[in-house]
Amino acid sequence: MLMRVALIGSPVLKDEFHKLYLELKRKGISACAIGLTSRWESQKARLVEKLRSVSHLVVFLEHREGWFPFLEGFASARIPRGVAFLPSQENAFEEQKLVDTVSPTILPLFTRLDSLIEYLATEQIQIGKEQELTEAKEYIVQSGIGLSEENLALCVQEGKTDLVRRFLTLGYSPDTVNAKGIPLLILAIRNKHRELVLLLMQANADVNKISADRGSSALMEAAVQGDRELVEALIEQGADLNLRSKNGQTALMLAIGEGKTEIARLLIQRGADLSPVDALGMTAKKYAELFKQREVLSLIEEKLQERM
């Protein structure tokens, strides 16, 4: 149910109703007013129908009449509970004083308009979160997919962005790995699902999480693909330029080996370490020499000179 507040009390309080209604409207909260007279019991069935159509009840205590005990009982049984409002002309401590002494109602009591509005605004946020969770779960289940980390990984692999977004909404970690130990971010990069890569990064996926199969990082995978925009985005998000794969290769070595000159130059300019040696005894410089990457070799030699 969307949040909708019923303001209930004596018709003589229409000005107070209107004031609160306008304040709630400014907060984007839907509200309606229900005035009750001494003849309220003749329309009790209609009243109950209206009350059941709203999510929250605010009962004005001023000028309350015979309808109050019924309304108080109805409101106290609701989830969330209804609240009572008794405007006070006293100082800011009046609300706490009433709570500490004898309250005129079993309902949570507010005596200040700002406190009541703050409470309802908080409720609106909570309801919004609950609705988002419900929608996400229903969307996934209705798509015929079970709620599990392995299914999340499968959705990433297949590029099902809408489903992945809802898994994340439900609290699944963007650092989830599949059965082979491959992180979601790396799965998305390998399968070239750019939208999913950005979604996972926005969800603060660990850009330095290593895959169990190759020992590669997201930066290594992006470097191999020659995706400059993604490489830059990963670096900006804290990607470690000097992580090494199972074979001891860095992102720079892989970029050189794959002939991704632009990426290799970018990594060097961003401060990639030139000293690591891989499992074959190769450095980045030796890779550049082996694959005849003259431009990269020249830049490496220049940087080595600067660092001496």
Please explain how this structure is put together:
There is one protein chain. With 308 residues, this protein is an alpha/beta fold. The chain has three domains: 4-134, Rossmann fold; 146-206, Alpha Horseshoe (Serine Threonine Protein Phosphatase 5, Tetratricopeptide repeat); 210-308, Ankyrin repeat-containing domain (Serine Threonine Protein Phosphatase 5, Tetratricopeptide repeat), CATH 1.25.40.20. It is 50% helix and 7% strand. The chain contains 15 helices and five strands. Strands 2-1-3-4-5 form a five-stranded parallel β-sheet, with helices on both faces. The protein starts with a strand and ends with a helix. Mean pLDDT is 92; it is low at 91-101.
Q: Could you provide a short overview of the structure?
A:
The protein has 308 residues and is an alpha/beta fold.
Keywords:
single chain, 308 residues, alpha/beta, Rossmann fold, Serine Threonine Protein Phosphatase 5, Tetratricopeptide repeat, 3 domains, 5-stranded parallel sheet, 50% helix
- Domains (count): 3
CATH class value of the largest domain: Alpha Beta
Helix content: 40-55%
**Gyration radius from CA atoms, angstroms:** 31 Å
Name given to the CATH homologous superfamily of the largest domain: Response regulator
Tally of alpha and pi helices: 15
Per-chain topology:
Blueprint: E1 4-9, H1 14-26, E2 30-35, H2 44-52, E3 56-60, H3 68-76, E4 83-85, H4 94-100, E5 109-110, H5 113-142, H6 149-157, H7 161-169, H8 184-190, H9 194-202, H10 218-225, H11 228-236, H12 251-257, H13 261-269, H14 284-290, H15 294-306
